[in-house]
Amino acid sequence: MPARLSIRLKLPLLICSLLMGVVLAYSWSVYSEVKRSALGAASDRLRGVTRQLADLTGTSTRQRIAEISEAAKRPSIIAYLRSGSTAAEPGARDALSGLVHQQARQNELVRVELWDGRGASRLGSGADFPALDPTAAQDLIRSIRPDKSPVIGPLQASGKVLQYSMIAPVSEGEATLGYVVHRRRLAGTSRAAQQLGALIGSDQAALFMGNARGDLWTDLVGVVPPPPVSVTTATDRLLEYDRPQSGGRIAAAAAVAGTPWVLLVEFPRGPVLARARLVSTQLGLIGLALLAAGGAGAW
Q1: How far apart are CA 56 and CA 257, in angstroms?
Q2: Residue 179 in 3-state DSSP?
Q3: What CATH architecture does domain 42-58+188-270 belong to?
Q4: Nearest to 235 by CA among 265, 273, 198
């Protein structure tokens, strides 16, 4: 029969086992608490920045909507759409050119067009844009509300060009003569990335914009895969997911008021949890060192 361990050996082994269990439990408890605290702070930061960016985007688009709404009321534009005569064309062109100059800020690529009541482009001014798909043009017209207030359309991709459109009906009495359409290209810059990094406190943050219906997402440079989770119903909480070849991410989303868009700001999960792992590892090493010293003393 195997020799039994004497009480002299059993007792130190039992004590060491209990101490190891306490050390592991305490280390896990500390890790969980530090992790929860880190994720809570990251969540507040991400949601605050995302909401701030969404508000800024909404304010900018509302200003542009107000400008094209005023342009749609100009007598020169109404006169041209009413008559379609070449005599009225110079005044309408001047109005469109003035609107392009007003709307094109910081070398942004902008085009303003005048459509007739059927949605056909009659006049245009500004940068060269690919012709808007007829189906997309009709969808934009149909999105106008019964009160005939201007609306902003979804993000669109035409080849490598990312753009969106705003439309304001030109009315005379109850009749709709046509539409003023503002088209703008999306273009991200290194300065924008730096500004986002300054807001988050890290250059590893990434900004994405997408249609609320989920059909197109962009990093403001090109079309990108959508987030691996639904974000349209998660604008009030922290999101956690994995991106292929990028690893774990935490993110926050916010709807842009007055638009069919959603903003998403995401950040690598690793740096957020690095402190929790470091604290847990340090406590574990300290506990093991004390355990080894205590075990040696018990023998």
Answers
A1: 10
A2: strand
A3: 2-Layer Sandwich (3.30)
A4: 265
DSSP state of 144: S
Contact 129, 104 (CB under 8 A): no
CA–CA distance, 38 with 276 (Å, rounded to integer): 8
| pLDDT reading at 167 higher than 80 | yes
- The residues pairing with 252 across neighbouring beta strands, listed in sequence order, are 265
8 A C-beta contact, residue 260 and residue 213: yes
Q: How far apart are CA 157 and CA 223, in angstroms?
A: 8
Q: What pLDDT is stored for residue 1 in this prediction?
A: 42
pLDDT tens-digit map of 133-147 = 888 889 999 999 888
Instruction: Please determine whether the domains at 42-58+188-270 and 72-185 fall in the same fold group of CATH.
Output: yes
Give the CA distances from residue 160 to residues 96, 111, 177, 180, 185, in Å, rounded to whole numbers and listed in that order. 26, 17, 33, 25, 11
d(CA 167, CA 143): 9
Give the Cα separation of 76 and 180 in Å (integer). Answer: 12
72-185: in CATH 3.30.450.20: yes
Tell me the sheet residues that pair with 102: none
Q: pTM value?
A: 0.74
